[in-house]
Write a structure and sequence with these properties.
Number of helices: 13
Shape: globular
CATH class: Alpha Beta
Number of strands: 10
Structural class: alpha/beta
Largest sheet: 8 strands, parallel
CATH topology: TIM Barrel
CATH architecture: Alpha-Beta Barrel
Helix content: 40-55%
CATH superfamily: Metal-dependent hydrolases
Number of domains: 1
Strand content: 5-15%
Order of helices and strands: EHHEHEHEEEHEHHHEHHEHEHH
C-alpha cells in the first residue's frame, strides 16, 4: 500500500479563517488543486494515476496559530472537523494529522486529545516554528510530554518564514532554500536539545529528506561536542531514530544521500501535493524506483515503512 505522508488540503473557507488570524500569504494556497469539489475529484484521479493508495493530510504551513487564544481554538477545531469529515467520506483514500491552537498549551493538549481520541486522526502536525519561536522553546515542553505519553506520531513541516532571515526572505528564496533550511535547523534543534532521547515514544517525521542534513550529518557528529556540548548523544544516532519524507523534487542524488545517511527504513513516501502536481506528482512517486536505488530499498520506502509506522494500515 503506497501511503503519501506529505500532502496538503485547504478549502477556501479554512484559508479565509487563517487569513483572519493575520496570515498574509494564503493566496499561495488558493486554487492550486488542494481544495474540495472538482479539485478533490481531480486529486483522486491523480493519485490513481501515480499509484498512491492513501494520503495523510496536514494543514501545514497554514496552521491555526494565533496569540488570540479563542480564535486559535475556533480555527483549529474547524479544520480538524473538516479533515475528519473528509476522511469519513473517503476512508480508503485519506487520513489526517491534528492541527493545534499553538502557542496555547492547555488548549493544544485538549485538541490533541479530541483529534486522536474522538476524530480518529493518526498523529499531530506542527510547523518547524510557532510564530517564529522554535519548537524547543521551554514553553512548548508540555506539547512533547503529551505526545510522548501517548506514543504519538508527530509530523513537522516548514513554516515558510525564511528561517527569520532577510538574506532568504528578501531575495525570493523562502521556499527554494528557506524551507529545507527550516527542516535542517528544526531537526538539529531537536537533537541538540535532546528531544528524541528525552521523549523516545514520539515518532517524529521530518519533511523534505531532512533538508540539508544528509550533507551535514558527519559535520554535526564531528563538531557537536565543542559547539553544543549539552547534546546528549551523537547527532547521527538521534537522527536515525526519526523518519523523513521523500519530497526531493525527483532529485535522485538527494534521495540516495538520505538513504545512505538515515537508512532506507527511515524514509516515507511524500509528494508535497499540491506543490508537486500533474506529471511532477507522478515523478515524486516514480523516482523512488530509480535504478540507482536498490529495489528492496524502494519497496521499503514506497510501502512497508509507512505500514509499519502507521500500524493500523496492516
Amino acid at each position: 500500500m503506497k501511503i503519501d505522508v506529505h500532502a496538503h488540503y485547504w478549502t477556501n473557507d479554512y484559508l479565509d479563517l487563517v487569513a483572519g488570524l493575520g496570515k498574509t500569504d494564503t493566496d499561495t494556497q488558493r486554487n492550486m488543486g488542494a481544495g474540495a469539489g472538482d479539485e478533490l475529484a481531480a486529486r483522486l484521479a491523480l493519485m490513481d494515476r501515480a499509484g498512491v493508495d492513501m494520503q495523510i493530510l496536514s494543514a501545514c504551513p497554514q496552521m491555526p496559530y494565533s496569540e488570540d487564544r479563542d480564535a486559535a481554538v475556533r480555527v483549529a477545531r474547524f479544520v480538524n472537523d473538516q479533515y475528519a469529515a473528509l476522511v469519513r467520506a473517503h476512508p480508503d483514500r485519506f487520513r489526517a494529522f491534528v492541527a493545534t491552537p499553538m502557542p496555547h498549551m492547555a488548549e493544544t493538549i485538549a485538541e490533541i486529545g479530541r483529534g486522536l481520541d474522538e476524530l480518529g486522526m493518526v498523529g499531530v502536525c506542527v510547523n518547524t516554528t510557532i510564530m517564529d519561536r522554535p519548537l524547543v522553546d521551554k514553553a512548548f515542553e508540555p506539547f512533547f510530554q503529551e505526545l510522548d505519553r501517548r506514543g504519538a506520531i508527530l509530523y513537522i513541516h516548514p513554516a515558510g518564514n525564511s528561517c527569520c532571515s532577510p538574506l532568504i526572505a528578501k531575495h525570493q528564496l523562502t521556499w527554494q532554500v528557506g524551507a529545507p533550511m527550516e527542516d535542517t535547523i528544526s531537526i538539529m534543534h531537536l537533537i541538540t536539545n535532546g528531544i528524541p532521547s528525552r521523549y523516545p515514544n514520539i515518532r517524529i517525521i521530518n519533511s523534505h529528506l531532512g533538508g540539508a542534513l544528509p550533507m551535514l550529518m558527519q559535520r554535526a557528529d564531528n563538531q557537536y561536542g565543542w559547539e553544543a556540548p549539552q547534546t546528549p548523544e551523537k547527532p547521527s544516532d538521534a537522527a536515525k531514530r526519526m523518519w523523513y519524507d521523500t519530497v526531493g523534487h525527483g532529485h535522485v542524488p538527494a534521495l540516495c544521500a538520505a538513504i545512505e545517511t538515515f537508512g532506507a527504513d527511515r524514509l516515507l513516501l511524500g509528494t508535497d501535493f499540491p506543490y508537486e502536481s500533474g506529471d511532477i506528482f507522478v515523478r515524486a512517486v516514480d523516482y523512488i524506483s530509480d535504478p540507482h536505488v536498490a529495489p528492496e530499498d524502494a519497496t521499503r520506502i514506497l510501502e512497508t515503512n509507512a505500514e509499519r509506522l502507521f500500524g493500523f494500515f496492516k
